[in-house]
Amino acid sequence: NRKDNLKIELDDHIKTFHFYFFTLSPDEKLIKSQITKALYLADGSAKVQYDNLKENGYYSNLVAGNVNQRIEVDSISVDLDRKPYYFRYYAKMFITRPTSVVTRSIITEGVIRDGLQPSDNNAHGFLIERWSTLENRDIRVESR
Q1: Are the C-beta atoms of residues 99 and 111 closer than 8 Å to each other?
Q2: Per-residue model confidence as pLDDT tens digits over 2-14
Q3: How far is residue 99's CA from residue 64's CA, in Å, rounded to a whole number?
Q4: Which of 61, 94, 106, 111 is most exposed by smallest CB count within 10 Å?
Q5: Short-list 18, 75, 15, CA closest to 49
Q6: Residue pLDDT, tens place only, 110-144
Q7: 3-state class of 78 per DSSP?
Q8: pLDDT at position 4, please?
Q9: What is the largest CA-CA distance in the chain?
Q10: CA 139 – CA 65 distance, rounded (Å)
């Protein structure tokens, strides 16, 4: 079924983008590589968020503090009945610091434009647009 395949491809695109944007290790080269991959999958709205985080020292603090973060998707909802396709992404982010592990609730939303030429950097030919974070809050802090 075309709609089932479309939902699977859209979910994969959304998951892949968020993985590259949020799964980071305290290594400047790796961070740059991950963010570059993420930015191929989204428009300038993701670049603005990246630039804001960078300007506020977020990435240099990851490196300096030897912090590792990874994201795990909880669910993704996509409205296939209108274009561009609206989505909402729900996940948990785990931030491992030398002294603690923080679990955060992450919710983002945006729309997906289709019809781009697929490429090595964007296999599905989708583009996340108007991406924004609705929630990014600590839900648990555990000592290590």
Answers
A1: no
A2: 778 999 999 999 9
A3: 14
A4: 61
A5: 18
A6: 999 998 999 999 999 999 999 999 999 999 999 99
A7: strand
A8: 80
A9: 49
A10: 21
39 phi/psi in degrees, rounded to 5 = -70, -20
Contact between 18 and 133 under an 8 Å Cβ cutoff? The reply is no
pLDDT of residue 9: 95
Locate tokens 């989204």: which residue?
42
Under DSSP, is residue 132 helix (H, G, I), strand (E, B) or coil?
strand
Residue type, 137: R
- In the three-class reduction of DSSP (H, G, I as helix; E, B as strand; rest coil), residue 26 is classed as coil
Which residues touch 124 (CB under 8 Å, ≥6 apart)? 9, 10, 12, 13, 114, 118
- Give the chain's radius of gyration (CA, Å): 16
Give residue for tokens 């996509």. 78
Amino acid at 4: D
Taking residues 93-102, what's their average pLDDT? 97
Asked if the peptide bond before residue 84 counts as cis, ω within 30 degrees of 0, the response is yes
Cα separation values, 110 from 64, 69, 79, Å: 32, 22, 11
Residue corresponding to tokens 């434009």: 113
The residues that bridge with 42 in the sheet, in sequence order, are 128
In angstroms, the CA 76 to CA 138 distance is: 20
